[in-house]
């Protein structure tokens, strides 16, 4: 396998830190996303959310065809 790969015109070495930095970047992005969504959820008014959800559900049942 190494001989076959060694015959290519362009070669580059892959170091461990390339994979570590990609994993760390993905982890940081996931943490930022979860943190921002948690803060957004914590700051919303639950009464408003429940009222809007109830209104959506009642509209859906009203518009549902008979059957």
Any overview of this molecule?
It is a single chain. By secondary structure, this protein is mainly alpha-helical. The protein has helices spanning 2-6, 16-43, 46-63.
What features would you highlight for this structure?
single chain, 67 residues, mainly alpha, 76% helix, 0% strand
Quick recap:
This protein has helices spanning 2-6, 16-43, 46-63.
Order of helices and strands: HHH
Number of domains: 1
**Mean pLDDT, nearest integer?**
84
What is the CA-CA span between the terminal residues? 65 Å
Major β-sheet profile:
none
The number of helices is 3
Shape: elongated
Range of helix content: over 70%
User: What portion of residues belong to β-strands?
Assistant: under 5%
Low-confidence segments, ≥5 residues, pLDDT <50? none
Number of strands: 0
Specify the structural class.
mainly alpha
Q: In angstroms, what is the radius of gyration?
A: 26 Å
List the helices and strands and how they pair.
Elements: H1 2-6, H2 16-43, H3 46-63
